[in-house]
Amino acid sequence: MSLYTDYLNEIETRKEQGLHPKPIDDGALTQEIIAQIKDADNAHREDSLQFFIYNTLPGTTSAAGEKAKFLKEIILGDVSVPEISVDFAFELLSHMKGGPSVEVLLDIALGDNADLAAQAADVLKTQVFLYDADTDRIKAAFEAGNAVAKDLLESYAKAEFFTKLPEIDEEIEVVTYIAAEGDISTDLLSPGNQAHSRADRELHGKCMISETAQQEIEALKIKHPNARVMLIAEKGTMGVGSSRMSGVNNVALWTGKQASPYVPFVNFAPIVAGTNGISPIFLTTVGVTGGIGIDLKNWVKKVDEDGTPILNNDGNPILEQKYSVETGTILKINTKEKKLYNEAGDEELVSLDSSFTPQKLEFMKAGGSYAIVFGKKLQTFAAEALGVELKSAFAPSKEIHVDGQGLTAVEKIFNRNAVGVKSDKPLHAGSDVRVKVNIVGSQDTTGLMTMQELEAMAATVVSPIVDGAYQSGCHTASVWDLKAQANTPRLMKFMNDFGLVTGRDPKGVYHSMTDVIHKVLNDITVDDRAIIIGGDSHTRMSKGVAFGADSGTVALALATGEASMPIPESVKVTFKGKMADHMDFRDVVHATQAQMLEQHGDNVFQGRVIEVHIGTLMADQAFTFTDWTAEMKAKASVCISNDETLIGSLELAKSRIQIMIDKGMEHENGMLASLIAIADKRIAEIKSGEVPALTPDENAKYFAEVVVDLDQIVEPMIADPDVNNVDVSKRYTHDTIRPISFYKAEKKVDLGFVGSCMVHKGDIKIVAQMLRNLEKAEGSVEFKAPLVVTAPTYNIIDELKEEGDWEILQKYSGFEFDDAAPKTTARTEYENILYLERPGCNLCMGNQEKAAKGDTVLATSTRLFQGRVVADLPEKKGESLLGSTPVVVLSAILGRTPTLEEYKVAVEGIDLTKFAPPKQTPAGAKSLHF
């Protein structure tokens, strides 16, 4: 049976799902299609032409290679295809975005046929995805006296690939569609439980919001053919939780514009809005596609004569509506004036200055941020090759320097890694900066999309600028089902070939390591001044500064070793008082959120970097705080650690990296060994006093400061999704933090979950210690609710076995993971036993394992999203409450939330995660450690 016949069978299967033929990325199938096109009498010739022209993926896919080669044959006259003229062949090449297509165009442009060379050069002048091999060819031809090469360089030096693009419309008419009331998580736009389909854009698009919503959006488009649909989070923030490129892709698929007539289901330029704007990391993803993100500010706090917010009976500010954006409202965006107007255009509703910065306008004009990044590099290269002064065609980067003002920790990191800065003065928050990226992480449910992005931008190898790059297998670790078996090995092979260390070995030599990506990145970050980009919102390291990013930004970082963003503002968090013996550090995390809201009223963390002066906590424990900052809607976090603690964390990182090497995970490029060398260099710098641990300047300026009083933390706290709050916008946020006494020991718990990235080795040891204590007191332990325990890494399990803790866990477990026989189906029912699950994301991800519908789950996880860990029943909403490890364990044993006294008895003598604020630095000290 031929590949083409298989493809036809797949098409019939997709028809039953209401889907079109899947875009082609396979070169062997494309070869069969080309053979059928060449055969004038072939029964499949007409369909093959359609597939070749309109359904073959561009970039560096093997299909693109075959397509480019065939188009070259047509252009050179080696093959005649009546339906594809030479002009049309050049047009098709122009839409293929680099890689094989650029190679073909250069072959022709630098060839002997002058007419074809000129035509190829005209197409090349519109391309930006050129790599070293391409630019080296042009430069060599120019130096050899080739006139076409000189013409190309002169065009690139003027950035005609950008300047000749049409300007964006001055006025954009939009019709509103309210996706939901309150914060909209990216789980609504691209559910985690549908992660397996993200790379199949048409199929994945069917999971956005609901089928009803999709029908309503389509109806709006038909009713208002001249308007663009604007997706809105009413009384909330759009895109909280994660960057999720698949979410933006889905919004673009339903509301955006087609990027190319020859590439199916790739749309761009969506328009999204929220009463409280767009989540920062999601806004970055919107920029990747050249979209528009709008802060509507259509609801404001009602205030009294003194300007004080008026509160309702629940103590929440009363909101009043400035203007309506109910579904079906026609509004007008003026991109020149940067304002939102009513339908008539005679009433200004809100300023859109932040939506249309010079840089964002460039993204919109170019169809996305990638084209700008590559365009700037191409223009710089051409100017240097010609030996002329660079006259940038792009908006100058904003460079802000304030005389006499010191630098925050994040400002220091950005200044250290900045690229192409004009001023020799240090830059402050608000400056637009290109920065080197030191560590890049790709995770497995977004990795297939990162693959597509790398292929689309014609990248073939990780940038030499990147110190460490890792591809995880944690998000699909729970269930090795047919979807995982089909996708994961393909992903691992691609990424390993690209130059990444991979969690699973494509060659099957080393044991599959499904360790949680954030934990691995935390270990391979070996410099407190590093910049980390990861394909997950919880890319929040306890060393350096890390940013969760969409799959495309991850691809860009891998390909170029760079990222572009403004230097964020910072909020300083310090601590005072003493932590009570019976409290766990997780309660400090909850208290930070609660006390911040008490001190400031609004969430001052949103969109900013949390600079946390945590000093005395090792990297594993500090990660509990930094990981949580994603749920605080912060852009990132920076840990201020003292010298001694940082050295200890770096030594631990070295040992973990060595374990990876010992397990056979080292890449042939020597990446892991080089990370150990970087760590050694950093440790030497700290010990010598040459470069102490990162600290801010004393006169640094912060947007706000939060002081967490440890004395106020007297009982464990729970982050509650508050699913029945009458104000819908207050549900599923992380702002409702309650002490366990609130629940009066009456809150039934149906399932407990200790895992995965929010816990460290100490947490799993706490589980073991509690089992020993209760066994000693009661003779045995009985669970009145299931308890799922998922260690974040295999290292932790190995160490627990060596230290004797795994044995007690095994004693009470009714299930223990077996890598030799992994689960092939997801668990849907739980017994009242302990489950020891494979390292990975497990319940937190929601794409494989799931609690029973309507359950109340108490977890150490981070996610409160509706339907993420537990779905709703018609008669009862599922709840995912978040607490510390000891609270979760005790609640699973009791089947309910405990009293404070029950909790104190259960944890007596147990080594909980402790924290003491770092001592104040004496004047003149070189570092926090003295």
TrEMBL record:
It holds the Pfam family Aconitase_2_N. InterPro entries: Acnase/IPM_dHydase_lsu_aba_1/3, Acoase/IPM_deHydtase_lsu_aba, Aconitase/3IPM_dehydase_swvl, Aconitase/IPM_isomerase, Aconitase_4Fe-4S_dom, Aconitase_B_HEAT-like_dom, Aconitase_B_HEAT-like_dom_sf, Aconitase_B_swivel. One of its GO terms (biological process) is propionate catabolic process, 2-methylcitrate cycle. This is Bifunctional aconitate hydratase 2/2-methylisocitrate dehydratase. Residues 411-895 form the Aconitase/3-isopropylmalate dehydratase large subunit alpha/beta/alpha domain. It is an enzyme of class 4 (lyase). PANTHER family: ACONITATE HYDRATASE B. Its EC number is 4.2.1.3, 4.2.1.99. GO terms for molecular function: 2-methylisocitrate dehydratase activity; 4 iron, 4 sulfur cluster binding; aconitate hydratase activity; metal ion binding. Keywords: Iron, Iron-sulfur, Lyase, Metal-binding. Residues 6-162 form the Aconitase B HEAT-like domain. GO terms for cellular component: cytosol. Residues 176-407 form the Aconitase B swivel domain. The keyword Lyase applies.
